Amino acid sequence: MSDLGDAHLRSWALRFMTLLAAGPEDQLAWLGEQAVGTASVVEEVLLLCRTWEGLVERGVGEPATLSAARAMGRRLAHFADAPHTGLWADELAAEPVWGDVRSLARQFLLTELGDWRQPLPRADTA
């Protein structure tokens, strides 16, 4: 992949990880009135984890982040097997998996950027 393509993918991955690492209150505020389905978020996170592995293989990401990305993928792969028809906003506080994902995303960002606390992306870019 081109350097520009990898840079774009890395930027997308870091924005999405920032959203996943945020506290539930911040996530809900970010969502606002958007109706985002849980199944869509799970699919996107699993894609993010696979994409990140490729980026690390090409030298674009920190190899030490792979353990958090892989753990997140494994955790959500089990969760993905269940049918999800609800909204992500409704599941953020009710489903323990999102607390696990939050913790792993924070670990990921701490390793990649040195701090997990990053400004949330604009709602139209994550």
Summarize the structure in words:
The chain is built from six helices and no strands. With 126 residues, it is mainly α. Helix 1 crosses helix 6 and helix 3 packs antiparallel against helix 4. The protein starts with a helix and ends in a 13-residue tail after the last helix.
- Provide the structure class: mainly alpha
Unreliable spans: none
Mean pLDDT: 91
The tally of strands reads 0
Q: Encode the helix/strand succession as letters.
A: HHHHHH
Q: Over all CA atoms, what is the radius of gyration?
A: 14 Å
Beta-strand content bin: under 5%
Quote the distance from N terminus to C terminus. Answer: 21 Å
List the helices and strands and how they pair.
Elements: H1 3-21, H2 24-31, H3 38-57, H4 66-80, H5 88-91, H6 96-113
Helix pairs in contact: 1-3, 1-6, 3-4, 4-6
Summarize the structure.
The chain is mainly α. It is 67% helix and 0% strand. α1 (3-21) crosses α6 and α4 (66-80) runs antiparallel to α6 (96-113).
Q: What descriptive keywords fit this protein?
A:
6 helices; mainly alpha
